[in-house]
Amino acid sequence: MSVTERRSLQEEITLLDLVDRVLNAGVVLHGDITLSVAGVDLVYVGLRVLLASVGTLEELEARSER
Amino acid sequence: MIAASAATVLYVYGIVGADAADDVEREVASAALGQTPRLLRAGSLAALVSEVPLAEFGADVLPERLNDRDWLEERVQAHEDVLEAALARTTVIPFRFGAIYHGNGDVARMLGERRRELEEALERVRGRVELGVKAYVDRQLLEERLRSASREASSEGAGAGRAYLLGRQAERRVVAEADEACAAAIAEAHERLSAIAVDARVNRPQPRELSGRPEQMLLNGAYLVERGDSRIESEVESLRTAYRGLGIAFELTGPWPPYNFVDDEEAAA
Asked: What number is the ipTM of this complex?
């Protein structure tokens, strides 16, 4: 079920490997459609996630290592 | 009106060609995913989408959610699992995490408005997958190897004071040589891998605090290859053999959806 079991080439997939791609790469369509959900402009959610991910990870790892 | 707590939005994982949509739909239905996505077809394209709770994905709560490791891991894994299930059947255009739309109409409109760009991206990666290659250096081992090499070269016949000075000089030289050896190793590795790949990207090395590994990451490369092409694998094996003695290790991951090869705006981001 996990990514690890289904992969053919990899030795070790960490959350960091996943986040490196899923949060930091891939198509981002911002600035094209103004999405308004519950009155909140979501156009820049992708960007916010990107910015948030750095701080998020630092905190994550600090927690998991101690 | 629906109560806010029950409200959902549409999460878009990525895009496939409409010609493969039926195939992908069957695959994701049988893939035992945490959440079975559906395919939203529009013209030549189809989006992989799931309804997700607004309470989790709203712009106001998402940054906070991302600080919840369990939530993040589950959602990031789900994103990857869906795209990998699709990748088993066809070419995939992965979206970055968190592409949220209000409803079917918004996704259909997005597919319409960005059709050309998405079709071009699909053509660029058609039949291709991404492989990841990371290189790590055991700096202590590398410096030891260089130190013993220089000791062999110049150890004889100096007095104590002079030997001390020579020793300090030699140590500085070892550090400089280690830096050079690392730079040369990643340059050679990336060049050899890029020569095989259709396209290549170098990403920022993952910092040690995040990787949790004692070794320093030297290379965090992504390589676009034809599906089933095993040459990168062989090349990594050959790099491993060549650099093992210097304490430089190579790791291969994938095949991944081509995350690093679908966004033209990447360079500007």
From this structure: 0.83
